[in-house]
Amino acid sequence: CKIMRSFDDERLDDRTETLNQAIKCYQKGRHDFVIKQTEDQIKLLKYQRRLEEEFNRPYMDLSLHQTIYRLTVENNYKVSEQLRKEFKVPDRRYWWIRIQGLAEAGEWVELDKF
Amino acid sequence: MASTGGSHLSSGKINLSLLRDFYRRELLEALDKCLGSKALVWDSDLTGPFGLIAEYSLLKEHEVEKMFPLQTSGLPPSNVQNIIFIARPRLKLMDLIAQNLLQEEQKGGFRKEYHIIFVPRKSLLCEKRLKDLGVYGTLTNIEEFSLSLIPFDYDLMSMEMDNSFKECYLENDFTSMHYAAQSLMTLQTLYGVIPNICGKGDCAKQVVDMMLRMRRELCGQEPNITPQIDNLLILDRNVDLLTPLLSQLTYEGLIDEIFDINNTSVKLPPEKFQSGQGEESKGVPTEPKKVILNSSDVLYADLRDKNFNAVGSIVSKKAKTITAEFDERHSAKTVSDMKQFVSKLPHLQQVRQSLSIHTSIAELVKEYTDTDEFIDCLRCQQEFINSIETDKVHTYVEDCMGKQEPINKVLRLICIQSYCNNGLKPKVLDYYKREVLQTYGFEHIITIMNLERAGLIRLSGNRTYPTIKKSLRLIMEDVNEMVPNDISYVYSGYAPLSIRLAQYYARPGWRSITEVLNLLPGPTVEEIQQIPVALRKRRSSIGSINSTAAEQKITLVFFLGGVTYAEIAALRFLAQQDDGGTDYVIATTSILSGETLLNQVSVPLEPAKLNPF
């Protein structure tokens, strides 16, 4: 399975390449859901790489949820809002992330706004 | 290896210590084939099961001097004449053995002989691997030891093949079914041919077919024993995927869900046990406390199958009687009174000790069942099985993900919802799947695909669940948890489907529920094995008066793909019913809980550390 193999690739380019191959395989089988998710994963990996370069902190291989959570803890509301829109995170869960993230960061003022 | 006496095995209707003795003989025979002193090298999966068959002292009598685990670091130096590897036939282990052998060769020195004992069978593939690795010639002897069904208790045997569900339904590997059929043949040589066979599910059909073929191959060379077991009922886990997903509510079931019982023993956090009196308190408290759980502990035999809500009152009642019995010594007047008391003393002390252990365990379990997470989760499960709000995304499941609760808990709930809704609408299913991936990471996509392939989650299909629920009376109201009157007490209101099938099989028979059986997956099998007239059980003639007690039939229920402790409790409950007329012996490929079922299906993926350039 290509997806499994992608996790062994050490370089980002290799990994996206393997994932792209996986998408091609799934297109033959018409697994629309998996295709969409794999594309999202590639997008997420690219985002994470960019964020790492920008803020010099590790984000790679976190799930989307954890990524947004970390960003919230680190006061990066703008980026987390952007990710939320990009990946269509449902409101309910986004607020969970916000609440927990803000509590972790001790931003009681922000929390109070709810 | 913990040594356990086999006395608790023989107290049932079928004497299972016969089976244990059979295995002991075979094992010793295999060991005695190598002359001189021996060291055993164990596949770590096998030490537990073997501990239940033969204790260390017995092995010592047969010149076993040392025991090592099989690991990459090789063998510690020793001066024994024989080294015996005991392993399951898996290729990975063959590599390890070969590596160990090569290291030994390099060390040279004292000449040794090497042997392998395969459990339960040798495989051609493994032998070929050993040849390829160039160590086959070094081995003096390759034996096999057919340990498959391990007696756990007087009514329970397990093959301890933890992955058989996955192997059968995801990997199409039916080796474990072959072992199951073979172990049934072993049982038949010990306890006589089982006249009636009945089964449900694809795997059940396979096992029955294999059994019948093996019997034909024997060409009638069967031991002349009157059959002790009347019926064999083989149930496929696939027939009832709902039950193992729900939270078990019996004492033993909860211990298994929380602490994971392995080969009838459980490791518990030590904090609770420090104050225990006597020698135990001196031990290092950092090591988990190991407790062996079987019916040789009288109190535990009483507690294990009770609903957890009833455990507290029983424990306190027992505690009171024990104190009262201890107090008898004050009232003892004569010497013979004293004598009588002293003779009871060891027993009393034993009971008191097990009482203190179970008080601590029950406290640990209660801590867990009192948490909001557990209660909310249970409420959500109950809603699902009652078909409330199963057709849309459930807010509790969403919240669990929002709070990043363990992924297995979330997946279990989704699986239950899927089952109770006859599959989920495409929109709901995709939403859940996307949420899981976003929350827990993309690597879980393989696990989700596996769940779909195993049928644990699926798209909406035929509406079968309402019919099954109704005609098998799965949901019972007014459960009495203290003094149960129906098997549904084990899940506080839900009667396990698999056990309902067993119940209907005993009375009034499966013919009355043909419709439901057709809704469940897999074929229904029914076979009759002919037995010479002379060996048939003598049924008392119609006129005889004293026939009632002897008439109780014995049914062996074999679960392919695993069984939960709560289901076992339900079967034991049925066996105790007076009007049931059937006693049960249980065999299974492994003991299962929702957690271990999901662990089987899920694929852990560890992303390689990404190169930052």
Structure description:
- The complex is a heterodimer of chains A (114) and B (613).
- The mean pLDDT of chain A is 78.
- Chain A is elongated.
- Chain A contains 7 helices and no strands.
- In chain A, helix 2 (12-29) packs antiparallel against helix 3 (32-55), helix 4 runs antiparallel to helix 5 and helix 4 (64-73) crosses helix 6.
- Chain A is an all-alpha fold and 114 residues long.
- The longest helix of chain A has 24 residues, at 32-55.
- With 613 residues, chain B is an alpha/beta fold.
- Chain B has 3 domains: 7-147, Rossmann fold (3-Layer(aba) Sandwich); 153-241 and 497-598, Rossmann fold (3-Layer(aba) Sandwich); 251-369, Alpha-Beta Complex (Syntaxin Binding Protein 1, Chain A, domain 2), CATH 3.90.830.10.
- Chain B has a 7-stranded mixed β-sheet with strand order 6-7-14-13-9-8-12, with helices on both faces. In chain B, strands 2-1-3-4-5 form a 5-stranded parallel β-sheet. Chain B has a two-stranded antiparallel sheet with strand order 10-11.
- Mean pLDDT of chain B is 84; it is low at 275-285 and 540-550.
